[in-house]
Amino acid sequence: MKKNLVAIMAIGMLIFGLFGVAQAAPITFNDNFDTENSGVGILNYNKFQNWTVSDGTVDLIGNGYFEWFNKEHGLYVDMDGSTGNAGKISTNLTPGNYSLSYSLAGSQRTGSQNDSVIVSLGNTTLINHNMAYNEGFQTYTTTFLVDSETTLSFEGLGNDNMGLLLDNVVLSGTPTPVPAAVWLLGSGLAGLVALRRKKRDA
Ligand SMILES: [Ca+2]
Ligand SMILES: [Ca+2]
Ligand SMILES: [Ca+2]
Ligand SMILES: [Ca+2]
């Protein structure tokens, strides 16, 4: 009876180990914002699938709603929303090797000559973009290593409700292999050791 219990515990630990690895999988997404809010633009949007809005607001625009570009961009994000406080959007990252690409454009409004967006990992600035209002979408790519859980964020600067426009954020990550493998091996071995010990004692 006890032996069975220990065997079940060992299996459970193995499953937990696998589950732990699954949980540690890094975030991978291809975000063109086109399906946000059922595909309809909205000011001061804060229900993104992949992002949390903090420190101000951002607008979800395009698709005929405050549209500054041709239809091929669908919806995109105005990094300075409509509350006089440009917004910041963040997503959590687990340890791994990441590649990131995204498109930024000028505000497309003459009232805002230049605008900035800071891309950060936690409190560390990766890239500081400054673009003139009339610049079209440009794609930027970078790679980085995350060794402990952190956030990736895009932060608009300004307070005139006209910010840089963000679209096509593609993030892909490969998990840092060692901790996950050790965790799986360790939890499985712990179960087997317990099983052996029980057998020997029986
Ligand atoms: Ca889009
Ligand atoms: Ca705005
Ligand atoms: Ca702000
Ligand atoms: Ca501005």
Describe this structure in words.
It is a single chain. This protein is α+β, with helices and mostly antiparallel strands. It has one domain: Jelly Rolls. The chain has two helices and eleven strands. It is elongated and about 80 Å long. The chain starts with a helix and ends with a helix. It binds calcium ion (4 copies). Residues 80, 107, 112, 115, 158, 160, 162-163 line the site of one calcium ion (CA). Residues 55-56, 85-86 line the site of one calcium ion (CA).
Terminal CA distance: 11 Å
**Fraction of residues in helix:** 10-25%
Radius of gyration: 23 Å
Assigned CATH architecture: Sandwich
The overall strand count is 11
Strand residues, percent: 35-45%
Q: Which small compounds were modeled alongside the protein?
A: calcium ion
Principal-axes shape call: elongated
Per DSSP, the total helix count is 2
CATH topology: Jelly Rolls
Instruction: State the low-pLDDT regions, or none.
Output: none
SSE string, helices as H and strands as E: HEEEEEEEEEEEH
What can be said about this structure in brief?
This protein is an alpha+beta fold and 202 residues long. It is 23% helix and 37% strand. The mean pLDDT is 86.
